[in-house]
Amino acid sequence: MNINDIKTVAVVGAGDMGHGIAEVALLTGYRVNLYDIKDEFVERGRDRIFSSVAKLVEKGRVPAELDEAIRNKLLKTTTDLAEAAADADLVIEAVPEIMDLKKQVFGDLDKAAPAHTLLASNTSTMSITEIASATSRQDKVFGLHYFNPAVLMRLVEVIRADGTSDETMQIGMDYAAKQRKVGVYVKKDSPGFIANRVNQAPAVLVAEIVERGEIEPEALDAFVRAMGAAMGPCELTDYVGIDIMVNVSNYFAETLGAEYGPASHLVAMQARGDLGKKTGKGYFEWIDGQRPAIDMTRATSKFNFLWPYMVQVNEASKLIQEGVVDTMNEVDLAMINGFGAPVGPVTIGRQISKWDLIDGLNFLADRYEKDIFRPTHRVLAGGHKF
C-alpha cells in the first residue's frame, strides 16, 4: 500500500480539530466521511467547512470548482461510525482527550473498517501504542497530530507507535506532504511527542511564577507581548482552555513525573468553572468572547525573556536522549510550524553560552524546586552546541 491508494478519508469527530482536518483533506481532493455522535455536531462541522472554503474562494486561494465539488460530491456526513469507516482507506480520530474513549473508538473502527485501512489518532499527548492496543492491526495504527487551526498551521507530527510498520509511517509522511504540510517524523511514542512536550516546560515555569505571586498575569503578558509575541502565556492558556491545560498537565504528571503537573491555582480555576475564553473568565475577562485588553504599561521588569527558551532547549535535549527525534533541528522545525514562531527555541538557545545556559537552568531548578529544569547530560556535555 502507498499514498496513491488513499482515496477516501474518514474523520471521527467534527469539532474544532476534526472539521479542520476534514477540510484540509477536502482541499487536497480526497473524499471525506465526516462523523460525529449527533446530527447537530456533524451539521455544525459541515457548515464550518463550507464557510471556511467559501472565504478561501473569495480570497482567490481555492477555485470555485473545488468548492462546488466539496459541497456536492466530496463531503459525506454521518452519525453512523460503521458507515463512516466502511469505504475509508484512512481514518483520522479527533475525539476528546480521554484514553478510554479513544480506545473504544479504535476498537469499533477495527471491526468496521476494511482490513487495509490505516487508523490514525490526532491526540496531542496520549500514547498511540496504548490506543493501538484496542485493535488487531497495530501495524496500521499511528499518530497524525495536526495543530489548531489545521487549515492554517503547517505542522503534522507523524508518530510511530511500538507496532507501527515502516510502510504506514511512510504513507503518513506522504499524506502530510500531499497536503502541503510539514511532516515531522516522531520515531518513538512519547507523551506530548515533540511540540507539546517542549512547550510544557515553559508552561510549568510560567504557572509556578504566577502560583507564587511573583508576577501578576497581566504584567507577565504585557512583557511577553512587548517582546513581540502575539499573545502572552496567560492569555494563551485562557484561549486554549484552563480545563484542557489541566487535563494535559495531569497526563504529563502521570506519564513523565509529578513536576509536570498543573499548578494548584489552575486546578482551582477549573473547579470554579473559570475555564478561560469559553466561559468568559480565566486569568482575564473575555467579554463577549473578545480578547482581554492588556495594559502594556504594566509590563514587568522581573522576567528574563531567555528563561522559557532555556527550559525548552533542555526539554528538547531529553527528546534526543530518549530517541524521540534524531536532531535538535527537528525540534525547531516542529515549533516553528506548529506554533507559528519566527525562530525555533533551539536556534535561540544556541546563542546562549554553555555556562549561561547551565547556570540559568540550575537557577530555575533551585528557585522553583523543579528538577525537570536541571540541565540534561546532553546540555552539560555540549552546551549551546547540543
How far apart the termini lie comes to: 38 Å
- Give the integer mean of the pLDDT values: 95
| Poorly predicted sequence stretches spanning 5 or more consecutive residues | none
CATH class of the largest domain, anyone?
Alpha Beta
Helix residue percentage: 40-55%
Task: Describe the protein in words.
With 386 residues, the chain is an alpha/beta fold. The chain folds into three domains: 3-186, NAD(P)-binding Rossmann-like Domain (Rossmann fold, 3-Layer(aba) Sandwich); 215-298, Orthogonal Bundle (N-(1-d-carboxylethyl)-l-norvaline Dehydrogenase, domain 2), CATH 1.10.1040.50; 307-385, N-(1-d-carboxylethyl)-l-norvaline Dehydrogenase, domain 2. The chain is 50% helix and 10% strand. The chain contains 17 helices and eight strands. The protein has an eight-stranded mixed beta sheet with strand order 3-2-1-4-5-6-7-8, with helices on both faces. Strand 5 (118-121), helix 6 (128-132) and strand 6 form a beta-alpha-beta unit. The protein is globular. The two termini are 38 Å apart. The model has no long low-confidence stretch (mean pLDDT 95).
